Amino acid sequence: LQLTGKQRQFIDLLQQQQTVASLRSLCAQAGFDFNFINGFLLSGALNGYVQWQEHSQQTWALTARGEDLAGVLPGSLLADRLLAGQCDRAQLQAELGPAFSLNYGALRREQAVDLIDGNGEGTVAVLKSSVLGAYQQRQGVFEAIAAGKVLDASAASSLEWLQQQGYIASRVETDYSLTVLPALQTLDLGDVVTTLTSELILSGQWRQADLKPYDIHAEVPNVAYGRPTILTQCIQRIRDIFLNMGFDEMSGYMVESAFWNFDALFTPQDHPAREVQDTFYLANPQTLPLPDDPALVQRVKQVHEANYGGHWTEAEASRAILRAHTTTSTARRLHQLQGKDGKYFSIDRVFRNETVDRTHLAEFHQIEGVVVGELLSVRTLMGYLTYFYERLGFKDLKFKPTYNPYTEPSLEVFAYHPPSDRYIEVGNSGLFRQEMLAPLGCGEKATVAWGLGLERIAMLLYDVEKLSDLIGPDIRL
Ligand code: PHE
């Protein structure tokens, strides 16, 4: 038998009995939940150990109206006194007070009494003493129900009357009587094994052992469970903002070819950003295949050669790196779109070979965004960024011209940070150049795009001073 603690306790209890007249009252007395034990019985786990017989029984309970009577039926106080031979009206009124007319009214309704005012001495005359007797019985039954006592057949007529008056209501309750069979009396439950040790397993003893099952009804201590880290919360918030602005989420690859990270972005092959001091080059794989679109590679090559003095090699473009920005995802997406309009964002991890300090890590997240369409301008770009940062609570932005190989104009974004009374750099953005768009097949389109620092935003929003409080194995927030 695989038993929970409660089930064991119940069996212990049964072993001390031969018969149980009412499982319900046994449960009530011993503090077991009847429904739980009922389920245990019906599961068949005790078949062969216990015989049981179901019998439903009608039980009674006071209705709200019955509860209102506070234990005394109208009529019974007066009935008691009349049966005891007391019939002087003035005296009865003095004793019963305001209850007199209530009691008199009740008995009068059954035409059991009358008032006689003959020679000035008021008298309550008994017309039907059988009704008065019935009142005494009804009162007794009423009290028994209130106390939850079991009633016998003699209560039938009182029950009927009490129900008609609306003082009590019946319900049907299933109950069981049990006969405990000798098999249970002699059943040795043995010790419960609460810890499965390697010894039990190796010796094979676990096969015989009574392993304690999980008790899914057991009360467990309240634990403060996990919640998303600040960075994850930030990502969720930013994702919601862009989704609400009608953007679709895009993704890319952490391991990329230099082609998508640099060449497709019109970054010359001798650009300082491509040096190992800035970019992580992989030893394995050392190279990645160029895009499966030779015409694209050809167009990129031509643009580089025409603008950057004739030197461009596929070998350099094939080098495998950890992506240094998520504009790789944007470039891939533009190539997919082939001039179709769209709005895309990503929140993804990037890698740069930087010296790690309080505010710099070699890996961080960028919030990338790109809009492809007609008539997009610097104003459009500033509009999107202003709207986005406002949603995060940064109301005051400044834009400063900067340089990127692939955008013109290019704007750095600064957000005002009231606690430190400074403008803090939060992103970089621009309008993609024709030299980049045309080879990707989007030459007819205007695009605005940005790459924003997620950790910078999180630090400002949550007032964190060290990046190590935000990321890594030692988050102390
Ligand atoms: N890729 C740039 C960076 O990493 C950000 C950027 C994205 C700028 C798109 C302009 C357009 O800083």
Automatic annotation (TrEMBL):
What does the record give as EC number?
Answer: 6.1.1.20
What terms describe the molecular function in GO for this protein? phenylalanine-tRNA ligase activity
Q: What is its main location?
A: cytoplasm
Task: Work out whether the entry's keyword set contains DNA-binding.
Answer: no
Q: Does the keyword Aminoacyl-tRNA synthetase apply?
A: yes
Keywords carried by this UniProt record: Aminoacyl-tRNA synthetase, ATP-binding, Cytoplasm, Ligase, Magnesium, Metal-binding, Nucleotide-binding, Protein biosynthesis
Task: Give the Aminoacyl-transfer RNA synthetases class-II family profile domain ranges.
Answer: 343-473
Mark the transmembrane ranges. Answer: none
Query: What InterPro entries has UniProt attached to this entry?
Result: aa-tRNA-synth_II, aa-tRNA-synth_II/BPL/LPL, Phe-tRNA-synth_IIc_asu, Phenylalanyl-tRNA_Synthase
Q: Sorted alphabetically, which PROSITE patterns does this protein's record hold?
A: AA_TRNA_LIGASE_II (PS50862)
Q: Where in the cell is it found?
A: Cytoplasm
* Family the entry assigns: Belongs to the class-II aminoacyl-tRNA synthetase family. Phe-tRNA synthetase alpha subunit type 2 subfamily.
Its name, as the record gives it, is: phenylalanine--tRNA ligase
Q: Which organism is it from?
A: Leptolyngbya subtilissima DQ-A4
